[in-house]
Amino acid sequence: MSSEKPRISILIPAFNKEKHIERALRSVAEQTLRDLEIIVIDDASTDSTAELVRKFAGKDKRVRLIRHEQNRGTLSARITGFREAGGDYVMCLDADDTLDPDCAEKTFALAKKYDCEIVGFGARLLRAGKTSGTIDAVRGRLSAPHVFEAAFCDHSYNWSVCLKLFRRDLFEKALADTEDFYCVSAEDFYFYTILSFYAQKIVFPGKIFYNYYIEEGLTGHQNTPESFRRMATMLDALKAVSRFLKKQNDSKYDIAFKQREQEHLQLLFSRFPSTDGAGSMQFLLEQYPEAVIMENMQLYFGTDFTEKAFLAVRNNESFPQLPEQNGSEPLSFRKKVIAALLPPESPQWFLSKRIHDLLKWRKYK
């Protein structure tokens, strides 16, 4: 590296990612900004992930491997990585995703130019090697309290910590209020709630620098009782968000929290397993307030199924069959035409995004 202290520390939590970790590491090692440190936090993998990272580190001295003796989850792995990081800025990368070669260089330049704590950027959604959509290729600038409120209250931009460059001092302040617990679902929502709450300025260049591979990570797992319980760690994230907001002694975000809570619970119910329904239901009731579970189950499954499910658990009776849910609707003719006229990352696509963002973000001026 060109200086003793790297400009950016890139944190890569990894758990059993032997199929993808080298691809992720190559994308970071090939960054046009060379003054980096690359920290892989192996979360007690049982495959050859750690061995592959050691081999890669033998060729690139910027790569460091840290190992957890026990599997502690993505949130905890990122916390471990930051405590070892020395960079002025911090970036996160999932072990089965990649960064564009100019990601670090471009975001670092923007952070310096605008003297901001966060630079946000977009992602391509890649399915079978083809772009199937994008996330957050927005353009604009926000100052406090809108950095927090645009994400938490309005969900106007994505809270993924992988789609951001963070200044070190903001990361340190947020970590002082961050609880360390096992969490592999909604950990970004939890951590970014705190980061954005303390942030004074964020800049979005309207560019895409991240490649998100669909159906290669947790999102690609089938709805088994085991994967459902892993996803249900989002309940711990929701409880932690609630505790953080209560510490601020301000109830102004109570309604927004209920909205975000409903979003997460609806997503969780979409992964409810078709086997061991009673056990999964009992697990939910042990983890989260019964009234909230019932209210949101009724919204998702309907009153009839919800009442039967609760009675089955209480009386140790046979659990009802899950009602059929509508799959994703096919694209309408209008949407097909728009997709054909505005292919992702084409000049006309960026122009339409720019106009859309100008209209959407007027309320935060």
Describe this structure in words.
This protein folds into two domains: 8-219, Spore Coat Polysaccharide Biosynthesis Protein SpsA, Chain A, CATH 3.90.550; 221-315. The protein is globular, with a radius of gyration of 21 Å. The relative contact order is 0.11. Helix 6 (168-175) packs across helix 7 (187-198) and helix 7 packs parallel to helix 9 (234-247). It has helices spanning 21-29, 49-57, 73-84, 103-114, 146-152, 168-175, 187-198, 225-231, 234-247, 254-269, 277-287, 290-301, 303-315, 333-341, 347-360, and strands at residues 8-14, 36-42, 63-67, 89-92, 98-99, 118-120, 122-127, 130-135, 139-143, 164-167, 201-205, 208-213. The chain is built from 15 helices and twelve strands. It has 365 residues and is α/β, with parallel strands linked by helices. The strands form two sheets. It has an eight-stranded mixed beta sheet with strand order 3-2-1-4-10-6-11-9, with helices on both faces.
Please provide a brief summary of the model.
This protein has 365 residues and is α/β, with parallel strands linked by helices.
CATH class of the largest domain: Alpha Beta
Category by helix and strand content:
alpha/beta
**Approximately what portion of the residues adopt beta-strand conformation?**
15-25%
The biggest beta sheet, please?
A: 8 strands, mixed
Q: Looking at CATH, which topology of the largest domain would you report?
A: Spore Coat Polysaccharide Biosynthesis Protein SpsA, Chain A
Distance between the termini: 40 Å
Main sheet strand line-up: 3-2-1-4-10-6-11-9
CATH architecture annotation name of the largest domain: Alpha-Beta Complex
Number of domains: 2
